[in-house]
Design goal:
It contains 11 helices and 20 strands. It has 343 residues and is α/β, with parallel strands linked by helices. Helix 4 packs across helix 5, helix 4 crosses helix 10 and helix 5 runs parallel beside helix 6.
Length: 343
Amino acid sequence: MRAVVIHAPKDLRVEDRPALDPGQGQVAIRIRAGGICGSDLHYYQHGGFGAVRLREPMVLGHELAGTVESVGAGVVDLTPGDRVAVNPSLPCGTCRFCLAGQSNHCLDMRFYGSAMRMPHVQGGFVERLVCEAARAVKLPAGLELPIAAFAEPLAVCLHAARQAGPLLGARVLVTGAGPIGCLAVAAARHAGAREVVATDLLAAPLASAAKLGADRTIVAAENTTALADYALGRGHFDAVFEASGSAAALTGAIQMARPGAVIVQLGLGGDAVLPLSLLVAKEITLRGSFRFQEEFALALDVLARRAIDPMPLLTESMPIEQAVAAFDLASDRRRAMKVQIAF
């Protein structure tokens, strides 16, 4: 089978890998759609992010959907032909965080396409993926595979919305309009927000944010007056989703958030110096949001009911033979939002 393998920054190859048969409790899935994520782009562009560095060749990819091809012994809930989305998380189920219902913080997590551990956890950009049956979540009737491949990033944003608390009637700011920021816009609107404002340094991504439900979009570098207006009167927004990973965006969010607001940090960037006096004086809650738990199944339900339509984010689907070109396109925020590889 063919696989999309990263060897070093800008050294991405389509290689042949052995096609394995499913063992006890496993299934073999013919992958059909795989979305290129921001973390995939970090490996492609920089060889990693933060302290996480590529130390051996690794198959990329964790936004996956396909069709069950065969099942191993002991698998009773899936049969060949079933259409599934693949949950990239495999927590151990026995550590103290798993037992406390915080499986996204598992001490022995195996997450597809991750260089956090050595040997690396190989990803799912392969033509035929063998995985634990528990990772293969059967699709609701009528849910197309390219839409199902959005389940993982949407689950991230549904988890973030849960971290924000009740959003019914809330005024929400989303900073950073990449795929996660745009899906955060949709998640906030789905949770009942009455006003959603999205900001970004570029105009192109904001067009997608508007399609997913943003009432107003602001190019931050071009309209500082509009942002300053939201800071008047000790702030305007009840909740903020910071999806850019920018220290400047987080500082600005604290200024625009009203007293008692919740800021959910979604974007990963470097360390930031924060205006702690303002954070304290406005009694703002700053929360991180990391991956997801049961939100993966919820995301599939939301997508199947068309409560959120992610397809305005899909710029292009490109065949595996053009994987390098797909990654180059996905790296250009002026031309692309979400690029999928078709297997």
